[in-house]
Design goal:
By secondary structure, the chain is mainly beta. Helix content is 3%, strand content 51%. It has two helices and 21 strands. A hairpin with a 2-residue loop joins strand 16 and strand 17.
């Protein structure tokens, strides 16, 4: 049975009201936000949610926990939320080699978008063993778009970037605003059967030219953050990617506030 949690002046409340039965085995499967698109047939064993990056745009979080009151007691159930999506971050700078021929060179990025991605997906959050406390997240991506722009970002003034150093600490610009990430359906980037995923951008020094480059083939996994560094040389672009765990959150007040 679905239960909605909320937080107010009286603390946590939930509806409908429920009571522990010591001899029963309880399974809790949670998601955030509450108005995510739940697919019919979802229950405590199988949570199914549909998602469209261009429409939804929220950070989809899920959690699973079990409780057997006879051995575990009836205290508070801690729900440790996991990111169900992949996080993408893009940074741009001139390659250090540019400084050997043109020290101090700089530019601004004014427009950026991706092409060659799936436009929608369905997540299956399943406790495959029936008692592992974690469960598995899998995605069924659909609606591949070869030319439709995804995550289209613009800035009339542009974001400045220059020649970075070998450690990529200086003069490198994070493209997207805010925390610099966008949420993506886990899928194979540049899936050979579909075509290449491409970055496309316009700079201040070449405002009438769309520069487009292929991303390397890579599986985007749930709960991972992919930081792509775009280093422009005098004749080409080098793209590298750093993969890191996307921090897992424990449920806090602001999740439901």
């Amino acid at each position: 049975e679905a239960v909605r949690l909320s937080y107010g002046q009286d603390g946590w409340t939930y509806s409908p009201l429920a009571y522990w039965h010591r001899s029963q085995h309880y399974r809790f499967r949670a998601f955030h936000p509450y108005d995510a698109h739940i697919v019919s047939g979802s229950d405590a064993d199988d949570l199914i949610i549909s998602y469209q990056p261009g429409v939804d745009g929220y950070d989809l979080l899920v959690a699973f926990e079990e409780r057997y009151p006879v051995t575990d007691g009836t205290g508070t159930v801690a729900l440790n939320f996991r990111h169900a999506l992949s996080a993408l971050c893009f940074r741009i700078a001139f390659d250090p080699s540019v400084g050997l021929q043109d020290p101090g060179h700089h530019d601004v990025i004014k427009e950026f978008w991706l092409t060659g991605l799936y436009a929608a997906g369905t997540m299956y959050y399943t406790d495959t063993s029936g008692s592992n406390g974690e469960g598995s997240i899998t995605w069924d991506a659909a609606g591949y778009e070869a030319s439709e722009p995804f995550y289209h970002w613009t800035d009339a003034d542009g974001k400045s970037f220059g020649i970075t150093d070998e450690d990529k600490n200086d003069n490198i610009c994070t493209i997207f605003d805010g925390d610099g990430i966008v949420f993506a359906i886990p899928q194979t980037c540049s899936e050979p059967a579909d075509g290449f995923t491409r970055i496309n951008f316009v700079t201040g020094n070449a405002p009438d030219v769309v520069q487009s480059f292929e991303l390397p083939t890579l599986d985007w996994e749930p709960g991972k953050k992919y930081t792509y560094d775009i280093l422009i040389t005098l004749s080409d672009v080098n793209v590298t990617v750093d993969i890191a765990d996307w921090t897992v959150r424990e449920a806090q007040l602001d999740i439901f506030a």
